[in-house]
Amino acid sequence: MSPEVFVDILRDALFLVILLVSTIIVPSLIIGLIVAVFQAATSINEQTLSFLPRLIVTLLALIVGGHWLVQQLMDYTIRLINSIPSVVS
């Protein structure tokens, strides 16, 4: 295995990880920012007020995008397994 092949595999894996994690985290970050602005505007300092909406949005993102997330992971795994003969030889 040449170093270029290893770097390509690692780059694809890291890109997939960033893609999968960002689809879950970005909606939660946006809701967290909205709730923080609301709390700052109204001077409400309740900890659960910021936690619960982020939890709900994260769970909704997993429910709605779960099929796509698993499909992307399966496609990468199948590509990786199918590339084994070309990498080894």
TrEMBL record:
The alphabetized UniProt keywords are: Bacterial flagellum, Cell membrane, Cell projection, Cilium, Flagellum, Membrane, Transmembrane, Transmembrane helix
What is the membrane topology noted in the UniProt record heading this document? Answer: Multi-pass membrane protein
State the GO CC annotations.
bacterial-type flagellum basal body; plasma membrane
Keyword Transmembrane helix listed: yes
GO terms of biological process kind: bacterial-type flagellum assembly; protein secretion
A Pfam family that the UniProt record links to this protein:
Bac_export_3
Q: Which domain of life is it from?
A: Bacteria
Subcellular localization, as worded in the UniProt entry: Cell membrane; Bacterial flagellum basal body
The answer to whether the entry has keyword Transmembrane helix is: yes
**UniProt function note:** Role in flagellar biosynthesis.
Name the protein family: Belongs to the FliQ/MopD/SpaQ family.
Name the chain's protein: Flagellar biosynthetic protein FliQ
- Origin species, per record, is Thalassotalea piscium
- Top-level taxonomy: Bacteria, Pseudomonadati, Pseudomonadota, Gammaproteobacteria, Alteromonadales
Q: Which gene encodes it?
A: fliQ
